[in-house]
Write a structure and sequence with these properties.
Number of helices: 3
Shape: globular
Helix content: 40-55%
Number of domains: 1
Order of helices and strands: HEEEHEH
Length: about 100
């Protein structure tokens, strides 16, 4: 993980804590291309791939993200702090729109 990517990943982790969410590093053995974070909060469990502002998804990552989405998983790619902030706004809105 490059330095700029670490900035985004650390910001995600810090924002998760500030929002009362869990944020785990995800490293499944033997499966390449899976998003590197699991975020749990606002009644949702989502996967997040962090990149630097100039980083691009590798072909294997694109494949895994597509497979996961097709199987029903929510997967986000964040390459800036602004996108991390938007992710938390999205999760908050989804919780507000959930019927109980």
């Amino acid at each position: 993980m490059g330095k700029a990517e670490a900035v985004v990943e650390n910001y995600l982790r810090d924002q998760a804590k500030a929002h009362g969410c869990l944020c785990f590093k995800f490293t499944p053995a033997g499966i390449n291309g899976v998003p590197d974070r699991i975020l749990i909060g606002y009644g949702k469990t989502v996967f997040v791939e962090c990149k630097s502002d100039v980083g691009a998804l590798r072909p294997q990552q694109k494949l895994r993200i597509r497979q996961m989405r097709e199987a029903g998983a929510e997967v986000y790619v964040c390459n800036t702090r602004q996108l991390v902030d938007e992710l938390f706004k999205t999760l908050q809105k989804k919780e507000e729109n959930t019927c109980t």
